[in-house]
Amino acid sequence: MVDNLELDPISKEKTENKEEQVELNLPGPTEEEPKAPVLLSQEEQEYVRLTNTSRPRVKAAYVVLVRNSELHALRSSMRYLEDRFNRKYNYPWIFLNEEPFTEEFVKLTQQMTNSETHYGLVPEKHWSYPDWINQTLARECRETMAHNGIVYGGSESYRHMCRFQSGFFFLHPLLDGLDYYWRVEPGVKFSCDIDYDPFQLMVERDLKYGFTIALEEYRSTVPTLWETTLEFIKTYPQYMYPRNKADSLFRMVTDDNGQSYNLCHFWSNFEIASVKFLRSEGYQAYFRHLDRAGGFFYERWGDAPVHSIAVALMLSQKDVHWFYDIGYKHDTFEHCPTEPAWLVHGKCYCNPLTSFVRDSGSCTPKYLEITNSSTDQYIVTRPDKILK
After folding, report:
1. What span, in angstroms and rounded, lies between the C-alpha atoms of 264 and 164?
2. Helix (H) or strand (E) holding 209
3. Domains along the chain with CATH numbers
4. Where is region (Disordered) located (predicted)?
């Protein structure tokens, strides 16, 4: 907003003649020229709204599936996110665990934030084998995958985690009443100042799903996932977004009009998404179909391709947002904004040359191609001068 400028009082100049003194009301010099009104673009106006911390908070929270043993890695993630964003917005934290949290865990996580913290136990039925799974066969599949050197191929707990993240976490009572969640993992890094409220962005643009990194899945972990998905599409066409529409996301997950899965997925360890979407009839039907097929245990289906395929099948391009201006690192994979300079060097401290978007395994270029969009369209944050 531009302040109203008060001009200096009109100066008075005097002239004299022999008979009388006449005052002339002429404008005198001012100390500075009045400033012209600053006209903000629509994007800048949106940014001003999204950075207004006095607005009512969105019904949203951070959701973390975490073990007690991951306490200090989690505290690191919390420190990054609190410093970069949440100290100004104070969204609550929800922690879920398949085992009871220790007193130490509760105490030390509460010390990391001024926001509310909530602690929940994963129901046993959501972290165990359903009765239709042949556990002997599941064990043999794990042993074979471990022998073949597949990442997490031999892990039983990893499979329970993927199944829980695919079909159950959003049903936990602690998420009741929420419109959006932001998934956070232990040991991740946020490397850019997040000046605006991503949850408010989701509301204003009516978004359903947001991501930072898109990449390819290991084919050996999902050999029959697409085949099972095609069965679902045939059985439940009413849940599909029309793939012949120009704004369909179908081509994000297939390069041959649906004959095969191209392995592209949004990496779900960072996602900001709609609780309502995951609780929808369509998504729930998709998860139940996959769950009955047994691929979470007989193969190693991950929650990331499950979420991503559902998004590509059921949502449109306008429902999804790439959080380009949020720097994020998980393991060795990092997203770092590569332009413009005021963002890269002024609000971030990551190295844009190592950003995964440059890697041949990145699916973000494909996302930009099918959405006919460019990087600058996903820059929500603006230079600091906009707020002055």
Report:
1. 21
2. strand 209-211
3. 48-387 (3.90.550.10)
4. 1-35
